[in-house]
């Protein structure tokens, strides 16, 4: 990832400082683009439905993990409607506190709220049917992302699936000094996924997002 994250500790602490100041709202989660949340969720639902079901080789609907969950925007409208139980992990405690009310009645079906950076988080082995990682990989260094994906693979149930949905740059690694993150191009993301020993089993571009923002791609991994 070059120089950007050479000083790893400030790369992470600057991001934590940034997110601590962001309001715990859908708009806050999406950098002022709260209005695209419905399109995002509809696209994700259609993507995930291709894999879920009861037959041989289908992904189960028991338990999902929402990574970099924030206030639970994705848990509320995508994961809790599809899975019996959902765990949330995020580095910002205030967002997880907000999730408890934001998720309403369905908060009953949240198993755990883990306040932890993904660079340190160890999901329990053999636990999840789906591990959803959206708009957060840019906060991890290359090595930490690869290591996290490896731990995620161990945490999957049979026929389980890891999904990365994130911004992709046109070319190379584009740093964002405001929130202390990077945006990688699709080839770089695919290479890191390969280094983690995972295979891309399906890939789509999210359509109908505003033209001025990064392209967003969704990758299903096993
Ligand atoms: C752009 S928001 C996306 C939230 C959610 N995934 C969504 O799409 O609504 C990024 C989230 O990542 C969290 N975050 C930032 N760095 C993190 C890290 N190293 N580990 C875990 N979460 C992190 C922030 O607290 C914030 O909730």
Task: Give an account of the 3D structure.
With about 220 residues, this protein is α/β, with parallel strands linked by helices. The chain has one domain (about 10-220): Vaccinia Virus protein VP39 (Rossmann fold), CATH 3.40.50.150. The protein is about 35% helix and about 25% strand. The protein has seven helices and nine strands, in the order αααβαβαββαβββαββ. The radius of gyration is 16 Å and the shape is globular. The structure holds S-adenosylmethionine. It is found in: Nucleus.
Q: How is this structure best summarized?
A:
Helix content is 33%, strand content 26%.
If you consult CATH, what is the topology?
Answer: Rossmann fold
Determine the mean pLDDT: 96
Q: Tell me the name of the CATH homologous superfamily.
A: Vaccinia Virus protein VP39
Which CATH class?
A: Alpha Beta
Helix content: 25-40%
Shape: globular
Tell me the fraction of residues in β-strands, as a range: 25-35%
Q: Identify every distinct bound molecule in the structure, by name, code or SMILES.
A: S-adenosylmethionine
Provide the gyration radius in Å: 16 Å
| CATH architectural grouping | 3-Layer(aba) Sandwich
| Overall number of domains | 1
Low-confidence stretches: none
What spatial order of strands do you see in the largest sheet? Answer: 3-2-1-4-5-9-8
Which sequence of SSEs, written as H and E, runs from N to C? HHHEHEHEEHEEEHEE
Structural class designation: alpha/beta
DSSP helical segment count: 7
Give the termini separation.
24 Å
């Amino acid at each position: 990832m070059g120089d950007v994250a050479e000083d790893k500790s400030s790369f992470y602490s600057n991001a934590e400082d940034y997110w601590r100041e962001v309001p715990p709202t859908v708009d806050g989660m999406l950098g002022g683009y709260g209005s695209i949340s419905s399109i995002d969720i509809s696209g994700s639902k259609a993507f995930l439905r291709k894999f879920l079901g009861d037959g041989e080789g289908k992904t189960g609907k028991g338990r999902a993990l929402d990574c970099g969950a924030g206030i639970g925007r994705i848990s509320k409208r995508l994961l809790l409607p599809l899975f019996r139980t959902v765990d949330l992990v995020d580095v910002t405690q205030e967002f997880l506190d907000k999730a408890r009310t934001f998720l309403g009645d369905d908060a009953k079906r949240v198993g755990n709220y883990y306040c932890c950076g993904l660079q340190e988080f160890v999901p329990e082995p053999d636990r999840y049917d789906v591990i959803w990682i959206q708009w957060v990989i840019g906060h991890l260094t290359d090595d930490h992302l690869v290591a996290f994906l490896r731990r995620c693979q161990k945490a999957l149930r049979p026929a389980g699936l890891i999904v990365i949905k994130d911004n992709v740059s046109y070319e190379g690694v584009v740093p964002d000094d405001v929130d202390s993150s990077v945006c990688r191009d699709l080839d770089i993301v695919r290479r890191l996924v390969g280094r983690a020993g995972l295979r891309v089993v399906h890939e789509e571009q999210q359509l109908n997002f505003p033209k001025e923002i990064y392209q967003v791609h969704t990758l299903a991994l096993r």
